[in-house]
Amino acid sequence: MKNGTCWLDEAGRPIQAHGGMITRFGKKWYWYGEDKGAPNALLPDGSVSRRVDVIGVSCYSSDDLHSWRREGLALAGQQAGYLAPENVCERPKVIYSVATGKYVMWFHCDRGDYTLASAGCAVADRPEGPFTLIRVLPPNRRDCRDMTLFEDPVSGGAYLIHSGDWNKTLYLSELDASRTEFTGKCVAILPEQEREAPAMCYQDGMYYLFTSGCTGWAPNPALYAASPRLDGVFRLIDNPCQGPRFRTTFDGQSACIFRDGERHYLLLDHWQPTHLRDSGYSILPLEIQNGALQVTWRDEF
Ligand code: DGJ
Q1: Is there a contact between 224 and 257 (Cβ–Cβ < 8 Å)?
Q2: Which atom number of ligand 1 is nearest to the Cα of residue 214?
């Protein structure tokens, strides 16, 4: 697959899984993301907005991370309510709860003007869905705009990591065993750095947090932070990108980090603000050595 371009599913249709997450359940890979498969909405003056009406969260499955089968909408948009077309449903992430046997989806749920800044939670019996929305709330009374989920391989705990305080601070909110409730533990892991698009991984005693700056759909330099403790303050280190366009995260933005065997991979979105449905993707391996993280551009995945 050619990095930076819009990829096609097995049926030859553009993959609609933006701001997404690739994860494995059982023997299969699943890719969840925003279905933006419609033209950008028009503003009252007829000009093109920078948004697509909510369609829902799509799900794709794969055996090899290269050939993707569309499983349909895992969480479908609705005519009214939180998932109505004029709202925002972004950056969906899915986790499995051993305690309840349910698949749990969290996503950034918002109004069209981004003033609700909440987290939506939906559950399903199967990874493909259908997911049912059960709750929308500001986690631990904090904003939730860009967000991700992280399952700690050390403790087995699960966390929502979210941009709060008008995107000033990244918070870690702990989930309980059901993965649908917060325990109340909430830590400012990256205070006052104005970062978004969080993606987390763990290797050899260190947690790594990959983020972007807050410039809407426009690419900007990535930065990574690291900490030996998940619930401590992360130390901001550097731009991990190497190669052409390293100052703009290869003209992309982090969507998630996933692990295949011993390797971690970064999934990027390459946003096309005026025709968001054509936004492309890249998958790049992370190189982690002696507490340092690096990601080098490659033309192909
Ligand atoms: C940047 C965020 O990372 C995206 O998920 C989206 O919310 C855009 N901003 C909207 O401008």
Answers
A1: no
A2: 1
